[in-house]
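User: Please predict the structure of the protein below. I'd like the answer in structure-token form so I can feed it into my own downstream comparison script.

Assistant: Understood. Taking the following sequence of 418 residues as input:
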Amino acid sequence: MNNTKYWFYIEPYCHVSVTTNKVMVINTFNKEKIANSSSKVIELIKRSEEKEQFKVHELSEEQLKQKEINAFVNQLRSTFSGDIIPQNFSKEKPVQILPEPIFLNGRLKFLNKKSKGVNNVYPWIREISIDFGGNKSLSTPFDIDLCKQLLFLDKRNTQTLDLDSIKPFIDDILAKNSFCTFRLTGNSLYNSDYIKKVKDIFKEHDNRVCIQFYYQKLVELINSNQINFLDSICPRADIFIDKSTAWENVTQIHQLLQKYEIDTLFTFIIENEGCLTRYEEVSTNNPDAIINVQPIYTGNNIEFLREHVFLNEDDIIGGLDPIKEIHLRKYINQNFFGKLHINALGKIYANINFEPLGNIKHHSIHDIINKELTERNTWRMIRNQKPCSECVYQYLCPSPSEIEINSKQSNLCNVDLN
């Protein structure tokens, strides 16, 4: 009787998903996918995925002879996704190095109200967006608050942000964080005196700043020759355009900002088929301009998003990220993590769709970061809710976004879970 025993393993660059009725192994190098619904295979994978097993599990000759197990092992071999090795090839059980992200020695997911948080908060800050306000008489072709889905002018911020209050807050971050970027918006920035004071706050750090404008106001100022504020602008600008934008507007803005040596990105806000047609027209007539698209949820365009934005299985596999990115999504929201937003009242948010974390006048950056890490969950909003939690593609999909928050639809995909 053959009593040979083996070590069963799956390569560390493969992503493994297990649900109650299916297991899926995806090779992130060659994008080969293996799906299996055998209860014996599911049990084998569940055992090997237990943390103490280090992704290596014992397999007997008797198990290997079982049709389902044998076929699965052969699939792993043929796709370079796993294998078995006789136990007598090594004195000790081999282990796989787990591709888990390092956050405070693995303590990120255990931070809560009972913990003291972190002492050095500065490395946790990746991006700060600031709406300086002054957004009076703001007219757009949209009936929704775009600021809840992208860094757009907030119509509610009619007052102007007090620069004496924001300066110490920014100075502190600039002095202790060398990589945090700043995205600025607000009609107050069109005032040449005000924007000079804003630029003075950042001084030699202006390469970390991007100012965002809505095209319509910029065109008005260009046509009335009120463009003195451009002398004090940072080297980068992001211009929002939409279905009301003529291609000539983009040409006009692009040429002007090039004259001022400002690197310019246009972001086209997409809500329906008509926007796609206009986008094609604008991009065709401005081949030298960099134009991205940004879909939004309007409250009645879910079918448009389903057709043009929702992912299917081919999209997910075709756009597969490295294994470390996939594992990162088990812990953090890659869209929100490390980002803060400050409005014209000085209120600070991890995301504007949720309650503020504090105010620049009353709370330090240490207070703000630790409140998010220990009491809130915006930065750690992951796909752990149904139906995503029951899907084998759970962490292969991008992290939840503002579209999901505003549409109250937790999965932007067309994947059949059955």
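That's the full token string. The chain has a mean pLDDT of 89.
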